[in-house]
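Input (structure):
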């Protein structure tokens, strides 16, 4: 019973937290066969070194569909796992996912507030 109470207490704390990232906008998407560029912005971003020392991030992943395929299944497109192959401007940092299934974009320095269109 103690474990169930702890689980629900933790769950409710996470769900009803007063800090939410919201208003995510991805605009001006431009894609070629090897590069994707876009602007990204969101409100209420955070990166803190105070306990619990955490941050928010946006997971960007790519899915593709073969238009000639009969079943038209969507599949993940692997991206480079080398950090230097990805760039971000302004307040942002890019962290590739180790299995190549996308990147996490997050605030690069400690702080709170909105991420302007970058």
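Output (sequence):
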């Amino acid at each position: 019973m103690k474990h169930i109470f702890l689980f629900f207490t933790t769950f409710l704390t996470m769900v009803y937290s007063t800090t939410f990232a919201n208003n995510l906008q991805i605009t001006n998407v431009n894609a070629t066969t090897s590069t994707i560029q876009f602007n990204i912005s969101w409100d209420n971003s955070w990166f803190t070194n105070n306990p619990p020392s955490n941050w928010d991030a946006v997971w960007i992943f790519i899915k593709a569909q073969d238009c000639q395929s009969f079943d038209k299944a969507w599949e993940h497109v692997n991206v480079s796992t080398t950090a230097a192959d990805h760039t971000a401007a302004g307040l942002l940092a890019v962290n590739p996912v180790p299995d190549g299934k996308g990147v996490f974009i997050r605030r690069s320095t400690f702080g709170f507030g909105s991420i302007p269109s970058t």
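Notes: The chain has one domain: 21-115. Residues 62 and 77 are 5 Å apart (CA to CA).
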